[in-house]
Amino acid sequence: MENGLVLVDEKSVNTSITTYDNQLLGFINELGLPTQNILVAVDERKKVVKNIDDVVSLLEAEKRGEAKYIGSIIKVGG
Question: Which among 20, 32, 26 is positioned nearest to 76, based on CA atoms?
Fold first, then answer.
């Protein structure tokens, strides 16, 4: 692909997200913090990921390098 993204199958993505979620929840639990209902469902996060390319394409190329907040939002949503 022209943007450098590598396509993977949906099952692999779901497995990776679930593994990450479990590790994150374990860490949060170790800190003694609540873990119930703090993460957005995988299906909802996939919607965000699917729209990233369209949203970023709206930014002028010169502005992308300065748009640090976009990467932060992607991380939180992904």
Answer: 20
